[in-house]
TrEMBL record:
InterPro entries: FN3_dom, FN3_sf, Ig-like_fold. Residues 1-21 form the signal peptide. Gene3D superfamilies: Immunoglobulins (2.60.40.10). It comes from the Eukaryota. Keywords: Membrane, Signal, Transmembrane, Transmembrane helix. The chain crosses the membrane at residues 194-218. Coiled coil: none annotated. PROSITE patterns: FN3. Residues 81-178 form the Fibronectin type-III domain. It comes from Canis lupus dingo (dingo). This is LRRN4 C-terminal like.
Length: 237
């Protein structure tokens, strides 16, 4: 009667082996899958984000929409006011008395921007709020010959970016291209363009008079009718 326990034992061992192999197979696959997810992903690329580009969508939104993971520049905490934006090119259009101001976003979360404009030592004029995609704004009704200081301000839920010594001696120190939020702009005097026009018209008049005189004294004489020209004024008198 030793045969039946032995047979049972053999059966049990085979079943358990089969069962184990069946159990192991999916587990092994799982482990392989886990290995794949643990493998470092392809080196991520930078998102197509330019802090100075006008109508730039925030990098976080680019990241959400990107088909592949991409990297965004680090930002300061949203619980802090933004760092000041960096003023870029200021293009003055003298004819229309306007200027186009460019800037670059700070590395902070920003909800909106606006411009501040000082003329001389007067009070600051605040421009309309611009949404966080804006990097360019137009200043209008600038006076010919006027000099101004313009600053870009960024704001978020925690406050607004700082402006160096607003409206006073501090801004007199701002000159030329800066790396800060402020810059000077000078509108050329309109009288200059008037002077240019006057000089141009004057030159044309002088040239016309000269050619008329040359024609009168030289050419008509050569063609043999100077007497009529000379006699006309006396006849009039
Ligand atoms: C932001 O403002 C610009 C115009 O200055 C506009 O074209 C754009 O649609 C605005 N974006 C959002 C998200 O409101």
């Amino acid at each position: 009667m030793l045969g039946s326990p032995c047979l049972l034992w053999l059966l049990a061992v085979t079943f358990s082996l089969v069962a184990r192999s069946q159990l192991l197979t999916p587990q092994d696959f799982k482990e392989e899958e886990e290995d794949e997810t643990l493998r470092p992903p392809l080196p991520a690329v930078l998102c197509d984000y330019d802090s100075c580009r006008h109508l730039q969508v925030p990098c976080k939104e680019l990241q959400r929409a990107a088909p592949r993971a991409c990297l965004c520049p680090g930002l300061s905490s949203p619980a802090q006011p933004p760092y000041p934006p960096r003023l870029g090119e200021v293009h003055v259009v003298a004819e229309t008395g306007s200027a186009v101001v460019h800037w670059c976003a700070p590395s902070s979360p920003v909800h909106q921007y606006w411009l501040l404009l000082w003329e001389g030592s007067g009070a600051a004029q605040k421009g309309p709020p611009l949404n966080s995609t804006a990097r360019r704004a137009e200043l209008k009704r600038l006076k010919p010959g006027g000099t101004y200081v313009v600053c870009v301000v960024a704001a978020n839920g925690a406050g607004e970016s700082s402006v160096p010594e607003a409206g006073g001696e501090g801004l007199d120190g701002v000159s030329g291209p800066t790396f800060g939020p402020c810059g000077r702009l000078a509108v050329p005097p309109r009288s200059l363009t008037l002077v240019h026009t006057a000089v141009g018209v004057g030159t044309v008049l002088v040239l016309l008079t000269c050619s008329a005189l040359v024609w009168h004294f030289c050419l008509r004489e050569r063609w043999g009718c100077p007497h009529r020209a000379a006699s006309l004024p006396t006849a009039g008198l």
